[in-house]
Amino acid sequence: MKLNHDKLLKSMNEKWVTKQCPMCGKNNWNIDTTIQGLNRLDANGSLCLGGATMPVVAVTCMNCGNTIFINPLVIECIDDGE
């Protein structure tokens, strides 16, 4: 999967109505340029290998460190053919 950063920024600017951080109220975000994967944990808190992984892009408040995740598949910012 390859992130299309321009599509991500366009979609976020169209959909993100209130850009203030819910923790500190600032508007100073850093958008990661890579796609990360969230993995499932079992009932004991152990990592489940071989299962589904949710792709996410981290968006971090540079004032307080609060981090939110955007699913690039949902907002269609993955380059075709990747």
Question: Would you kindly provide a written description of the structure presented here, covering whatever features stand out?
Answer:
Helices cover about 15% and strands about 25% of the residues. The protein has one helix at about 5-15, and strands at about 30, 35-40, 55-60, 65-70. Strands 1, 2, 3 and 4 form a four-stranded antiparallel β-sheet that branches. With about 80 residues, the protein is α+β, with helices and mostly antiparallel strands. The chain starts with a helix and ends in a 12-residue tail after the last strand. The protein is flat. It contains one helix and four strands.
Q: Which sheet architecture does the biggest sheet show? A: 4 strands, antiparallel
N-to-C SSE series?
A: HEEEE
**Uncertain residue ranges:** none
* Basic shape: flat
Structural class: alpha+beta
Task: State the helix count.
Answer: 1
Radius of gyration: 14 Å
Mean pLDDT over the full residue set? 91
Report strand %: 15-25%
Q: How much helicity do the residues have? A: 10-25%
From the N-terminal CA to the C-terminal CA, the straight-line distance is: 5 Å
Count every beta strand, where a strand is a DSSP E run of 2 or more residues: 4
